[in-house]
Amino acid sequence: MGRVKLPVMPPVKPMLAKSVKDMPTGDVLFEPKWDGFRCIVFRDGDEVELGSRNERPLTRYFPDIVDAVKVALPDRCVVDGEIVIAQHGRLDFEALQMRLHPAESRVRKLAAETPAEFVAFDLLALGDDDLTKTPLEQRRATLAENLTPTAAVHLTPATRDVDTARQWFTDFEGAGLDGVIVKPLDLTYRQDERVMFKVKHERTADCVLAGFRWHKSGPIVGSLLLGLYDDGGALRHVGVAASFPMTRRKELVDELAPLRDKAETQHPWYDEKGWGPGGATSRWNAGKDLSFEPLRPELVVEVAYDYMEGARFRHTAQFRRWRPDRDPRSCTFDQLERPLVYAIADVLSAG
Description:
By secondary structure, the chain is α+β, with helices and mostly antiparallel strands. It folds into 2 domains: 16-200, 2-Layer Sandwich (D-amino Acid Aminotransferase, Chain A, domain 1); 203-335, CATH 2.40.50.140. Helix content is 20%, strand content 34%. It has helices at 63-72, 93-98, 104-113, 136-146, 162-171, 246-260, 263-266, 344-348, and strands spanning 16-19, 28-32, 37-44, 47-52, 76-84, 86-87, 90-91, 117-126, 129-130, 153-155, 179-184, 194-200, 203-214, 221-229, 235-241, 270-271, 274-275, 293-305, 308-309, 312-313, 318-322. A hairpin with a 2-residue loop joins strand 8 and strand 9. The longest helix has 15 residues, at 246-260. The radius of gyration is 22 Å and the shape is elongated. The two termini are 37 Å apart.
């Protein structure tokens, strides 16, 4: 594939958002926060390149998106957006991760079985015009005028009404979205700067400490392995917590040492066949070394999380405090909030 020739050329580092607790107001635009792969589309006629947040191209992994944007986007343009996959009315990040496969035959097969969609939310160039110095309000209007929505390419909903945004924050979580993005209307496109705002869900849960992984830099604690008991009484791996300064990581080695005694053979994730469903393999990278030090499941830790994906925390949880007052057996899935179900199709038709 030949390289595109556009007024804004790859690679482009996407504009970013910083987390805030409350919904900003004023001359701002509110959009749903999509949970997928950030992608900047460079289209020059039949030539299309899909750039990612880390500047590695996504083009070869999403031939379906390459074909789709040729129908929906202007002939020559640069568009910022998100690649997502929806399954059963909800975003499915795990299915999206599976699309990053090295074998071309597998890529084509997955493109047919789990087709992706592109949600557009910013316009960096159109024709020969570089729009990165143009205010967001004008970029958004120009994008809306020039995008032809299809089943696979969408213009993200947007509103200037803060009450509507607060409703979206609550309702859209049920479709797998994880918050709201807030953009000043006079904002120019500033690469790799956190000049937008994001309001994300944050909840807390009391989890059983089931083990830890060593830090890559040496014999200090890297992350804590978290578990919750299911209805059948089995301790299920639900994710990890990792938000400690280096000095604290060193201290944790000694603090957790008593729980390592006899933990290996008495651990609920160990049986005569070896280590069981304790999360010793990665969902995203089967070759990644996720070996861990088991701990007797006697200590409870309170963590903050944004939301669940299936039976696991979608992102790394944040350590809040130890809960010596809690019985580990009382740490069950019942304590977790369950968002109301909300369909992706309804999200896309909003605004």
